[in-house]
Amino acid sequence: MKIFDPRFYGNLNSSNFDVTGKLITIDIESSGISKNGYPIEVGWYSKDSTGSFLIKPEPDWLENGFWCKYAESHVHGITKKMLLRKGIDVVSAANMLNEVLGDSVVVCDVVEFDGTWLTQLFAKANVNPSFKLIGHIELIDFKKRTGCHLIKSFSELQNTVNKTHRAQDDAKQLHENMLKVTEHIA
């Protein structure tokens, strides 16, 4: 049975996540915040690997999906023409994410949105995701349970950054913020 949803529904603990291990963050830009929105760009960031790609929309996404003109002109600046010209197909996108992310637990900003768009991508590609996805709040909670304390609020960090809303830049900013938000208690 294929399971296309990469979201991790378990409880993070030391047997399934290493708090001192490599942190990988991911961000997905979409055609718009709507039940008919679809993924258009994926970016990831870790100390060892960073990258992004545009996703060529599937024909039914273009025909029946939601496209936010405001987001195109004021948020991410990605046009349908760019996606059709420079985007990679959904199978290549899903396979590339599996290759780059492996079996890691990957952190995103808002798991409800990013998880939905990744599920949509992997389902359309008919590929199982190899990685697990958690939101930044799950990671902060886990770190607090394993000997770290909060030194800054995540929202405080988010409000002080210049948001470009391109997936790779957002993944990098999330990575930097996650490293700043907690510290280990000695």
Write a concise keyword list for the protein shown above.
about 190 residues, alpha+beta, Nucleotidyltransferase, domain 5, 3-stranded antiparallel β-sheet, 8 helices, about 15% strand, Exonuclease domain-containing protein, RNaseH_sf, nucleic acid binding, RNaseH-like_sf
Task: Explain what you see.
This protein has 186 residues and is of the alpha+beta class. It has a single domain, classed as Nucleotidyltransferase, domain 5 (2-Layer Sandwich), CATH 3.30.420. The chain is built from 8 helices and 7 strands; from the N terminus they run E-E-E-H-H-H-H-E-H-E-H-E-H-H-E. The protein has a 3-stranded antiparallel beta sheet. It has a two-stranded parallel sheet with strand order 4-5. A two-stranded antiparallel sheet has the order 6-7. Helix 4 packs across helix 5. The longest helix is centred in the middle third of the chain and has 15 residues. This is Exonuclease domain-containing protein. One of its GO terms (molecular function) is nucleic acid binding. InterPro entries: RNaseH-like_sf, RNaseH_sf.
Question: Helix and strand layout, with pairings?
Answer:
Layout: E1 25-30, E2 39-45, E3 50-54, H1 59-64, H2 69-75, H3 80-86, H4 90-101, E4 105-108, H5 111-125, E5 132-135, H6 136-145, E6 148-150, H7 154-159, H8 167-181, E7 182-184
Helix pairs in contact: 4-5
